[in-house]
């Protein structure tokens, strides 16, 4: 198992610093230890341009000690495993997801219904406003009982035929 360098800008800067130091093909103990901490005890996992200098330093007693220590850490990391979750935990997770999904679906249905109701009401109001704007008020009811929506002749005719009802503008005698 290999170890990764710190991610992000700091990791990239650290990698460039290590590479520029190794470009002279010599490494001291501190630089070699930093490389072993970053990349592990197997030089084959190190960046290609650092390998020749690392292999040369690994022949020294200090280099062998650093690589042995890094190899022990790698061995411990390789043996680490995560236990599988128990069956009861898996069932709890699945049940909680199903409950949450059902609640979200019900909420979505209610909100969609409310939205459709709101759109319908807005459409009705927009239609009423359009009629009010498009048809001027005096033209709504003409003298002959015809409106913008059709004739009101039965109502107008019935008021003229009834003896007790007087046309507008006439007073009682």
Instruction: Specify the oligomeric state.
Output: single chain
> What is the helix tally?
6
Helix and strand content put the structural class at: mainly alpha
Strands of the largest sheet, in order across it? 1-2
> Using only CA atoms, what is the Rg?
44 Å
Fraction in beta strands? under 5%
Helical content band: 55-70%
Layout of secondary structure:
Elements: H1 9-22, H2 29-39, H3 51-57, H4 61-79, H5 87-134, E1 146-147, E2 150-151, H6 153-161
Antiparallel strand pairs: 1-2
Helix pairs in contact: 2-4
Task: Write a concise keyword list for the protein shown above.
single chain; 2 strands; 173 residues; two-stranded antiparallel ribbon; mainly alpha
Protein described:
The chain is mainly alpha-helical and 173 residues long. The protein has a domain at 13-78. Helix content is 62%, strand content 2%. The protein has helices at residues 9-22, 29-39, 51-57, 61-79, 87-134, 153-161, and strands spanning 146-147, 150-151. Strands 1-2 form a two-stranded antiparallel ribbon. Helix 2 packs parallel to helix 4 (61-79). The mean pLDDT is 76.
Task: Please provide a brief summary of the model.
This protein has helices at residues 9-22, 29-39, 51-57, 61-79, 87-134, 153-161; strands at 146-147, 150-151.
